[in-house]
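Q: Hand in one record:
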Amino acid sequence: MTSNPHYRYGPGKTGEEYESLQRTDTIKELISYAIGCMMGRYSLDEPGLIYAYNGNEGFDPSRYTTFPADEDGIVPVMDDDWFEDDATNRFEEFIKAAWSPETLDENLKFVADSLDPKRGEASIDTIRRFISQKFFKDHHLKVYKKRPIYWLFSSGKKRAFECLVYLHRYNENTLARMRAMYVTPLQGKYNARIDYLDKEKDNAGSATAARKLQKELDTMRKKQQELREFDELLRHYADQRIPLDLDDGVKVNYGKFGKLLAEVKAVTGKKPE
């Protein structure tokens, strides 16, 4: 029934409007499938569900040859290109693997054109904006009726650091690995960027250029502070080596991580402690 646009979107729209809505939803489903392949839930080499067990036990990387699954089921979701293996960069790799490197630009444009691109925005930037700002809250939570299988760990409102974790691959080492592989290195990258901007501002050729650099500096410093606070909280939870019991369901397990996760109230019905 959901493939019928009149049923899915309601009556009273033009054929062009139905086509546009259906195309947008199809592209969102493609991005969701690609993230599933990153996580190892799906594979381009085999049909159907590949991995949905517990604690990453029995995970077999050899089942993901065409497009390798992520090593640990932790995929950064960043609004800038801080990590080679973040969701946006891996989506680009997915498109290459699923179709062809020769048609990459054409395919990325097709995807971006379905995601409300801004005027003059590069295709990959449109895709990054959707993945980092809208995928979890506006798509994944709705599709899974507030019982997500990919969990969004978030540093807070400034989104200094965010990543998705596949709940079936989470284990007691996941938070420590997240900290070591991503959060700690990102603090170093932020510090280096702030130092660079400071020097550039001192050498700015105009007041306008200096103001622009100062604005970015202010943003980076706020993100830096948010990341430090997140790191302290992450270390606290990582030291606890929290296990999941999938029999308890998503609602109970999602509530075990306090303010580390986004949209806690939407999932658990309670504010994070």
User: Anything to note?
Assistant: The chain has one domain: 5-171+244-268. The chain is about 55% helix and 5% strand. Residues 5-171+244-268 form one domain.
